[in-house]
């Protein structure tokens, strides 16, 4: 029994086990199946009890502390027993970021005793404090501490006093904590959030952790795509936990990451609440999204279309709700705040304009899908208000692609989808294309030609008015040569300030517009020959002629602009209004 005395002299539990052993048996076997840390921890405990030199390190201190607690190695069984020594060492390493992180990782192997002794919570609390204040995060430069036998006066030689501070960048701890398991990492992040850690740092760490552990969210690093050892179930759980911890502030989390998370969550069949939360977050900052990221493949059970258009529809609805709330919040301002309200509205138009362009491009991408139904196309396009588009070239392009891919549509359906665009807001290139587009209904083609003609009349009338202001019958003829030969005229950079030169440029532009008008009139006459007379066509399209007497008078059009009288007269006689 002498060889057993060092063990039982330090442990109450071992003393009890030894008393229960039969005394007549020379060889007794004592099995400690529930000992925290297992055989490695017991070997260190035995070395401690027998006074053999041992080393306490951040990697073994937690299992030893739990084993000492399990064996009840208190001060009642010897001064400076293992419980007090491991506890003191733990308190000491809590001042060091790397050592605390190592100790925390070992806590999972000795649960639940590590939780009962509050070792896990103390490690997390220490790490949170250091992440919040980088000046507290110091690292030991030496190796592990050495612990001498209990009989010696000093328990360990101590950690080297040469300390170095962590870098002061806000993301210096992202890589370190990404090595934690998900339960420990979640508790760390919850501790940081509870201590009001900056939302941008919380989001940055969550993005880093998710990208490191989920291959579909990772980017190529050193030419290789990082691989994950997690199962699909673990990845799904990680996505759901990450989304739950993300800050709610707009613009904190990158939209590209959120869209990748959404696509991965759908592929892993994550919970509906997780997907809905991602859609709402993306919708709040949809103006920051890229077209390629919105092309989410449809992986549902009813794969009607190639891309998940319903998902984009929900995100767009969320964006419109937020935008309308912003407008409503400022709609009741007093007149004194009118200028401030106008400035705020201008700022809000920028995201709306971005989203309208994004949706037009998205519709053009999904339009070739023959399974895309007209109501779904209309529903998505109609969400964007007409005022959000400065030009309707984008929506016209999407409509044209849709008509090309759905050649079986009836005339009524074609007219229905063409109502999504405003013919008055087409550029000259788009109007020229539309006027020659055989896929468009005839009614739409005539509307395009009419509005282009109307724009031309307005421009010509404006230039005629400008020519009258430039004319001075008493001295214009005498001053033309002088102004043309003036040194401040054509030869200088101030040419645009010379009224005579501007008048010459205006006449050239009027001549060009006259040619364009004549070309459009000839195209219209060709259609008339194939479709019937003017009256029959106008009656079919629901249009009416405008009497010449009701048109606005144009003062002195022929003499001043040198345009043939028949040109303006033809514009007046051929003008129509679409009813």
TrEMBL record:
Q: Which Pfam families match?
A: NPH3
Q: Which UniProt keywords apply?
A: Coiled coil, Ubl conjugation pathway
Coiled coil feature spans = 503-530
Q: Does the keyword Coiled coil apply?
A: yes
The answer, when asked if Nucleotide-binding is one of the entry's keywords, is no
Q: In which pathway does it act?
A: Protein modification; protein ubiquitination
Domain NPH3 per the UniProt entry, residue ranges? 171-455
Annotated family: Belongs to the NPH3 family.
PANTHER family, from UniProt?
OS12G0117600 PROTEIN
**Name of this protein:** NPH3 domain-containing protein
Taxonomic source organism:
Pisum sativum
């Amino acid at each position: 029994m002498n060889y057993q005395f060092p063990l039982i002299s330090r442990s109450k539990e071992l003393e009890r086990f030894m008393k229960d052993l039969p005394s007549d048996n020379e060889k007794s076997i004592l099995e400690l199946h529930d000992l925290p840390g297992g055989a490695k921890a017991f070997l260190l405990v035995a070395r401690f009890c027998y006074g053999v030199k041992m080393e306490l390190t951040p990697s073994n201190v937690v299992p030893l502390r739990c084993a000492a607690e399990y064996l009840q190695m208190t001060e009642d069984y010897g001064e400076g027993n293992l419980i007090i020594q491991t506890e003191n060492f733990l308190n000491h390493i809590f001042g060091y970021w790397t050592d605390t992180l190592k100790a925390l990782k070992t806590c999972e192997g000795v649960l639940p005793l590590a939780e009962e002794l509050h070792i896990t919570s103390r490690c997390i609390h220490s790490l949170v404090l250091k992440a919040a204040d980088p000046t507290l995060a110091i690292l030991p430069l030496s190796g592990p501490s050495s612990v001498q036998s209990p009989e010696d006066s000093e328990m360990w030689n101590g950690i080297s006093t040469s300390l170095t501070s962590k870098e002061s960048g806000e993301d210096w701890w992202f890589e370190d904590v990404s090595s934690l398991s998900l339960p420990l990492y979640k508790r760390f992040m919850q501790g940081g959030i509870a201590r009001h850690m900056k939302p941008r740092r919380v989001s940055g760490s969550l993005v880093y952790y998710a990208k490191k552990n989920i291959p579909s969210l990772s980017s190529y690093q050193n030419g290789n795509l990082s691989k994950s050892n997690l199962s699909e179930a673990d990845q799904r759980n990680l996505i759901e936990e990450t989304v739950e911890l993300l800050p709610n502030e707009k613009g904190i989390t990158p939209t590209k990451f959120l869209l990748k998370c959404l696509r991965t969550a759908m592929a892993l069949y994550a919970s509906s609440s997780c997907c809905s939360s991602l859609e709402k977050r993306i919708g709040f900052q949809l103006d920051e999204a890229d077209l390629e990221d919105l092309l989410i493949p449809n992986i549902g059970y009813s794969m009607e279309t190639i891309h998940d258009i319903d998902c984009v529809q929900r995100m767009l609805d969320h964006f419109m709700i937020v935008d309308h709330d912003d407008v409503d919040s400022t709609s009741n301002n007093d007149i004194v705040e009118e200028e401030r309200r106008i400035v705020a509205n201008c700022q809000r138009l920028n995201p709306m304009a971005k989203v309208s362009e994004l949706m037009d491009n998205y519709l053009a991408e999904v339009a070739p899908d023959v399974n895309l139904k007209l109501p779904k196309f209309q529903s998505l396009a109609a969400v964007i208000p007409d005022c959000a588009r400065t030009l309707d070239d984008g929506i016209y392009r999407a409509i044209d692609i849709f008509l090309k891919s759905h050649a079986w549509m009836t005339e009524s359906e074609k007219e229905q989808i063409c109502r999504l665009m405003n013919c008055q807001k087409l550029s000259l290139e788009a109007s020229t294309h539309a006027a020659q587009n055989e896929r468009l209904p005839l009614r739409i083609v005539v509307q395009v030609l009419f509005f282009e003609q109307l724009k031309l009349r307005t421009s010509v009338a404006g230039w005629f008015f400008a020519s009258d202001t430039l004319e001075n019958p008493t001295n214009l003829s005498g001053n033309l040569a002088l102004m043309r030969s003036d040194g401040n005229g054509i030869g200088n950079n101030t040419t645009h300030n010379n009224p005579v030169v501007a008048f010459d440029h205006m006449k050239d532009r009027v001549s060009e517009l006259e040619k364009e008008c004549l070309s459009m009139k000839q195209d219209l006459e060709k259609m008339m020959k194939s479709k019937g007379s003017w009256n029959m066509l106008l009656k079919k399209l629901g249009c009416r002629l405008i009497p010449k007497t009701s048109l606005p008078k144009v003062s002195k059009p022929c003499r001043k602009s040198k345009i043939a009288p028949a040109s303006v007269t033809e514009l007046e006689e051929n003008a129509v209004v679409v009813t």
